[in-house]
């Protein structure tokens, strides 16, 4: 029971982070009036957030390994409260942009810190499902920004709405301070303080582990399409190129959230029961995304509404699919460097999202502005990312299998990764680890799991 209390408190911090992340998107028109900003300047808020979030992942991961989850969740929450309060009371555009950058930095601290709690508090077979539940439940923050926050914004005004969000952040900070512990024993596996050279060397060591890069390419190939769609270009594409009303486009975004929740539970169960098939699941998700976009982009005229709904459902699976990347990071890294590994993985999808987001804007502008043809051309840039990610997964998967030769890692790497039986020189052999009763394969506790 204590594990679920700790996780739920951390999850609340992540929900608040997602709420803080999405408030500007909901209040864009109000921000334009308040700060006398053009649409181009307003887009800076979104792009800046993604840049800060992605750039902070490795530093946040290093700090997480040094100080532990509780300190990082409190630090991230404090930064977001400061940023939201600044937005609540300022009317200066430069101050508002700076405040948004602070919110993005705090957001970067939060997610990987909550994820790190999971292997410390749950059994190895629970970890994949709880990891998925963390990712999908956090999206409740988007619902909070779209309903109660928007209601306050319309009914009570800018300052009240943003102050209320900051107050919820303060509540989360208090609960984190009272209820969250890094481990059941209270002890934290921390990396020793080191200089810049040693820190950079440690980051390089984590990156050179094939499992870390496998997680990076997994996150890259699965997450970016739905992120770009939901964060910036989905609604313009649906309304201008596909002739949907704003309400219909909003409904499809709700369908996206529901699809992510349902598929996340399924993916969590599958990866928990069949960890040695995770890479195939990821490749299947990437292939399905590419296939559905190919079908839609091949249409010579606006796509039937039912087919757009199918597209949204399929690409939404990519969000939960990206969480498998963190499972790879956990499998192939000791707990002392898990934060750095998770930060590296988290960079994959957001770097890809940023590049695709910018590329679509450039292509649409060069093609003459918003139109069916310009969007059709612009969305095609996704195939480059899918190709890079798929090749990266195949290459790093092969390299990760070779690490099974390490005696210390062979027992859990064989269980958690290998897609095929390994055969030594003297003939076939099977894992010496007996399967648990009622399961189809061996079950080995991860070295970094605390029960």
TrEMBL record:
The protein's matches in InterPro entries, at most eight in alphabetical order, are given as:
MFS, MFS_dom, MFS_trans_sf
Membrane-topology annotation of the record: Multi-pass membrane protein
| Cited Pfam families | MFS_1
Q: Looking at the record, which segments are called Disordered?
A: 423-451
Q: Where in the cell is it found?
A: Cell membrane
Segments crossing the lipid bilayer: 41-64, 71-89, 101-124, 136-155, 161-180, 214-235, 247-268, 280-300, 306-329, 350-371, 377-395
Domain (Major facilitator superfamily (MFS) profile): residue spans on this chain: 6-404
Q: Which UniProt keywords apply?
A: Membrane, Transmembrane, Transmembrane helix, Transport
This chain belongs to the protein called MFS transporter
Organism (species) = Candidatus Mycolicibacterium alkanivorans
């Amino acid at each position: 029971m204590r594990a679920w209390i700790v996780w739920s408190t951390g999850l609340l911090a992540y929900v608040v982070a997602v709420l803080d992340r999405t408030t500007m998107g909901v209040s864009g028109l109000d921000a334009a009036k308040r700060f006398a900003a053009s649409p181009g300047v307003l887009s800076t808020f979104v792009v800046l957030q993604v840049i800060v979030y992605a750039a902070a992942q490795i530093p946040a991961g290093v700090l997480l390994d040094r100080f532990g989850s509780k300190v990082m969740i409190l630090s991230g929450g404090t930064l977001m409260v400061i940023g939201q309060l600044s937005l609540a009371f300022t009317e200066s555009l430069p101050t508002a942009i700076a405040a948004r950058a602070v919110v993005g930095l705090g957001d970067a601290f939060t997610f990987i810190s909550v994820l790190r709690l999971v292997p410390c508090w749950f059994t190895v077979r629970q970890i994949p499902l709880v990891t998925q539940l963390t990712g999908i439940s956090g999206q409740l923050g988007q619902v909070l920004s779209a309903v109660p926050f928007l209601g306050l914004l319309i009914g009570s005004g800018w300052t009240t709405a943003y102050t209320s969000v900051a107050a919820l952040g303060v509540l989360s900070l208090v609960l984190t301070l009272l209820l969250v512990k890094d481990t059941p024993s209270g002890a934290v596996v921390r990396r020793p303080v080191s200089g810049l050279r040693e820190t950079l060397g440690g980051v390089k060591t984590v990156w050179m582990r094939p499992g870390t890069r496998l997680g990076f390419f997994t996150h890259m190939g699965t997450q970016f399409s739905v992120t770009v769609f939901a964060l910036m270009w989905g609604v313009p594409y649906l309304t201008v190129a596909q002739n949907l009303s704003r309400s219909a486009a909003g409904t499809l975004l709700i369908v996206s959230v529901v699809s992510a929740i349902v598929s996340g539970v399924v993916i969590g169960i599958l990866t928990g029961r069949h960890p040695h098939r995770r890479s195939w699941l990821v490749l299947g998700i990437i292939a399905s995304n590419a296939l559905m976009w190919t079908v839609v982009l091949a249409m010579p005229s606006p796509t039937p509404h039912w087919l757009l709904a199918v597209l949204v459902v399929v690409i939404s699976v990519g969000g939960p699919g990206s969480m498998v990347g963190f499972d790879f990071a956990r499998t192939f890294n000791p707990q002392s460097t898990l934060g750095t590994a998770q930060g590296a993985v988290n960079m994959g999808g957001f770097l890809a999202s940023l590049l695709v987001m910018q590329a679509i804007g450039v292509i649409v502008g060069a093609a003459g502005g918003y139109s069916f043809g310009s969007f059709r051309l612009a969305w095609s840039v996704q195939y480059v990312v899918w190709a890079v990610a798929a090749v990266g997964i195949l290459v790093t998967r092969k390299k990760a299998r070779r690490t099974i030769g390490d005696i210390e890692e062979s027992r859990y790497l064989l269980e958690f990764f290998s897609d095929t039986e390994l055969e030594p020189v003297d003939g076939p052999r099977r894992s010496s680890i007996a399967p648990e009763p009622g399961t189809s394969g061996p079950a080995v506790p991860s070295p970094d799991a605390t029960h």
